[in-house]
What we know:
The protein is mostly helical. About 80% of the residues lie in helices and about 0% in strands. It has six helices and no strands. The longest helix is centred in the C-terminal third of the chain and has 74 residues, at about 105-179. The protein is rod-shaped, with a radius of gyration of 33 Å.
Amino acid sequence: MMASLAMKKYFENLAKALLGVKYNELNDLDKKVIESIGNQEPVAENINVVFHEQLSIGQKLADKVASFGGSWTFILIFVGIMAIWMGVNSYWVLAEKAFDPYPFILLNLALSTLAALQAPIIMMSQNRQVAKDRLEITANYQVSLKTDLEIIRLHQKLDDLQALVEQLQPANNQHKDEQ
């Protein structure tokens, strides 16, 4: 209990010295940064790992579908299937066996259905990417804030050392003059 009180006081002093604000008035992100400075721990984390661990199976599947649907492989396979569909049905029209004769109404239905299903899947994937980008921005803010605060602390230490050296120099100069 005593250690946690001491840490809390230490965090309070850090917040006041570095940010000019009471610790309990900080938002959660700033508190995390102050605590990481006080505990001498890194604040950075791999957002990719954290984010992907939280995804459901459906979300991972949607990302894979969106990734494949936006690839050249998909486009080439799709163009090939359409060419075969139209070629087979055009050839079979002559033999009166075509299951989807020109103007290829069944093909149009299949294309419309594919577009109707693929669009929301791609949008879900894009929304997740936006959420991931927000997490990255937040993480970058924390790292930048910690870096700035640590630099301020280093400057303070250097200033204290410089003042100490300046105090000792006149004493050393006097001591040399006396010899």
